[in-house]
């Protein structure tokens, strides 16, 4: 399993662009899942990095989380409206797994309250998906060229330059 901490070490360029774009949008990303009929579903989420893991957090009881319970594959894309990608753009893909750990849930709830004031302290968490990162990519404008950096678990980042 590739945790967020391991991903940052293995894919420094992709993880930095993802972190920067994720932060710039107030943590908003678009989550791609697979519906029961096999078609893709794209939904907004506000993932969080906490204790070395990437958590796919959002409103409980929504279809996106039912999708992940049934088929854990996902794609997470940083939200952007910049068609020229002057600030870069990134995506991550992998699988999600539910973490049943009430003590972890409460530590997360306290951290979330401190960060944004949302009070989930003392509440039971239902589905709490952690991301196993299997790959990622980003695009950046570097020296007037479009650089596409791709990473897959077990490998090194590879850069393709487009003129």
From TrEMBL:
UniProt-listed SUPFAM superfamilies: FMN-binding split barrel
Ranges in a coiled coil: none
Positions of the Pyridoxamine 5'-phosphate oxidase N-terminal domain: 27-115
Annotated InterPro entries: F420H2_bilvrd_red/Heme_oxyg (IPR052019), Pyridox_Oxase_N (IPR011576), Split_barrel_FMN-bd (IPR012349)
The entry's keywords: Oxidoreductase
Keyword Oxidoreductase: yes
GO CC, alphabetical: cytosol
Keyword Lipid metabolism belongs to the record: no
Pfam families on file: PNPOx_N
UniProt name for this protein: Pyridoxamine 5'-phosphate oxidase
């Amino acid at each position: 399993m590739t945790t967020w901490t391991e991903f940052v070490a293995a894919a420094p360029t992709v993880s930095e662009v993802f972190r920067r774009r994720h932060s710039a949008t107030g943590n908003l990303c678009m989550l791609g899942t697979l519906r029961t009929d096999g078609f893709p579903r794209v939904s907004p989420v506000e993932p969080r990095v906490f204790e070395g893991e990437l958590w796919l957090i959002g409103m409980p009881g929504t279809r996106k989380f039912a999708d992940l319970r049934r088929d854990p594959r996902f794609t997470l894309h940083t939200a952007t409206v910049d068609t020229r990608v002057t600030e870069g753009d990134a995506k991550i893909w992998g699988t999600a797994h539910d973490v049943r750990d009430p003590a972890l849930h409460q530590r997360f709830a306290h951290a979330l309250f401190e960060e944004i004031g949302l009070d989930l302290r003392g509440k039971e968490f239902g589905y709490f998906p952690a991301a196993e990162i299997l790959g990622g990519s980003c695009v950046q404008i570097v020296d007037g060229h479009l650089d596409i950096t791709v990473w897959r678990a077990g490998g090194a980042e590879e850069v393709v330059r487009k003129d």
